[in-house]
Amino acid sequence: MSIRLPLRNKTLMAFTAAGVAALTTLTWMPAHASSHREAPFITTQPKVDGTDLYLFNSYEDGRSGYVTVLANYQPLQDSYGGPNYFKMDPNALYEIHIDNNGDAKEDLTFQFRFQNNFRGITLPIGGQNVAIPLTQADQVNAPNSAALNVNEKFTLTLVRGDRRTGQAAPVSRVGTGATSFDKPVDNIGTKTIPNYEAYANQHIHPVNIPGCATPGRVFVGQRQDGFAVNLGVIFDLVNAPVAVITDPTLINAAPNTILDKNVTTLALEIHKSCLLAAGSNDPVVGAWTTASIRQSQLVNANPPSGHQTTVSYGGAWVQVSRLGMPLVNEVVIGLPDKDRFNSSSPRNDGQFATYVTNPTLPALLEIALALPGIAPTNLPRVDLVTTFLTGIAGLNQPKGVVASEMLRLNTAIPAVPFAQQNRLGIVGNILAKGTDNAGYPNGRRPKDDVVDISLVAVMGGLCMANGNTDALKFGAACNPDAVPLKGTAFTLHDAVDQAVQPFLPGFPYLNTPLPGAQ
């Protein structure tokens, strides 16, 4: 068997008891992969589809004390997707929410709005000035280049309190006070943009954050998708040889399905003192992202010239996308409630509790494989509620926490340099008896292999690891005897290694996007 072949279209190998359990757990976990096309409605609105959220203490040299938030939108971008590429929606509202007191309500909201400024570049053809059909007319090397036919800009607003009724103030550029920021055009290709990394770096803006004494940074632009996952195989009832996905030496046996895709990243770097609640000594913050569109849309059957929209928008904002932990909506929430989840707020997550405590996919897989008795029986799964909905006591559980789905980060735990980061986050740190407590599910770093980490958690691995640490408690209802897979839980993986993905050493951390042409 060649372990470099994609794990597709293979006949499943004979099942050992451990192998069957491995297949079962691979299909259900509170966090499994990048969030792509996770609900019926959002498939019709790709520009506002949130794909990944990262939240971590910055590990770039000289940035100690800062927290980085990366929110990705527009999944599965082909680098050659011209001539219009993947501009953000000027009629949508993109938001990053921070809860700094554990009550499952936003205390800080960073709102992004976009504008596509049309230049109307023309060329003299036969004595007439005729509009060109492309995004660019010549080489592009600097922000707001004269060669760009459409120049993208964005504004950033900080809202304190309720995201719709709270106190709002614009974020401004350090030095100039400007409240409008240039966004780089997507990586069209090396002839149009010879050095995309240098071009994109000109769009990293130092900013003053209202109510914060320490400046931060913002960047919005296309990036290479940093997530590594065997995406097609996972959703094909985990169509992979059990001998591979239970062998730790084969963590890189299959190619990353989405290695050739780009995304659009909304990146913020903010000093932790600006995120924590005033007067509080609780260092834990939670984060989630949303996107909203206007309630009414009217299609113009005869749109005017001049790059005006074909659709007119009006009414209140309606939330259509939500993301905290990755892949919750895909593999936890039942099909009837996927759109509802995308429209919901963490403070109302009680309505979805049964999907977490009594998951259905293990039972569905028993039916599909005609192999009864392979699903975990430690129900209700209070251990997973602790790990994914409240944070872990002694690690990233805020005081007075209200159970709700979001990423939670302890900002007091020092960042670990990239080379020393354990790809398995907290799980790997426990196994290695190490000092890296800065990884998933304590926030999420680009290097963290959340697929493999979640496999361990779902199979009760964190419960079994309680004996290795006195600092962390993963839930009073841990019962590894009710899980078919015990010691082998720590060997599970999806055969794609997150740690080998290319990343940058500093902000915005995600790699330069792939060009449309070399």
Mind explaining what this structure looks like?
Helices cover 15% and strands 24% of the residues. It is of the alpha+beta class and 518 residues long. The protein has one domain. The strands form three sheets. Strands 3, 4, 7, 8, 10, 14, 15 and 16 form an eight-stranded antiparallel sheet that branches. Strands 1-2-13-12-11-9 form a six-stranded antiparallel sheet, with no helix packed on it. Strands 5-6 form a two-stranded antiparallel ribbon. It is globular and about 80 Å long.
Can you give me a brief rundown of this structure?
The chain is an alpha+beta fold and about 525 residues long.
Quick tags:
8-stranded antiparallel beta sheet; 6-stranded antiparallel beta sheet; 518 residues
SSE succession:
HEEEEEEEEEEHEEHHEEEHHHHHEHHH
* Helical amount: 10-25%
Approximately what portion of the residues adopt beta-strand conformation? 15-25%
What is the radius of gyration?
Answer: 23 Å
How would you sum up the global shape?
globular
Counted beta strands:
16
Mean pLDDT figure: 84
Can you tell me the number of structural domains? 1
- Category from helices, strands and their pairing: alpha+beta
Low-confidence runs (pLDDT<50, min 5 residues)? 1-33
| Number of helical stretches of at least 4 residues | 12
Taking the alpha carbons of the first and last residues, their distance comes to 34 Å
Biggest sheet details: 8 strands, antiparallel
